[in-house]
User: What shape does this take?
Amino acid sequence: MVVAHFNLARVKELVGRHATLAKAAWDWGFGDWETALGAASHVGNRDIAELLLRLRRPGEAADVCRGLVPRAEETGLAREAARALAYLSEAERELDLARLGQVRQFLRRIERGENPVWSAA
Assistant: This one.
C-alpha cells in the first residue's frame, strides 16, 4: 500500500504480478482501511490513481471471460477457447486493456451463436 502513494513503476510491477492488488486494502490499525486507489488519491497522485481505476475493470472483465470459456468448450470450440484464454493470460500480464476487450468480444460472439473463430486481429 505504501508504494501506491508515490511509485508508479513499482505499482505497475506489483499489479502485473498480482492483479488483485489493484483492489487490495490494508488496515493501518483501529479500522483505518486504505486501498491502493485511496492511497494514490489522498496524496494527489493522478497517474497511479488512473492506472488503478483502469486495472480494476479489466480484472472483472477477465473474470467474466474465464467464466464464459467453459461455454465455448461445451459448444465444441475447445481449441478456439484455449487460444482465447492463452491470449487473455498474456493480455493480463501486460495489462493490455484492448486485448482483454478482444477476448471478451470473442466470448460474447460465442454466447450469441455468432462467428466462433478466434481472431486477435
In short: The beta strands are 25-27, 33-35. The longest helix spans residues 46-74. Residues 8 and 48 are 6 Å apart (CA to CA). The chain has five helices and two strands.
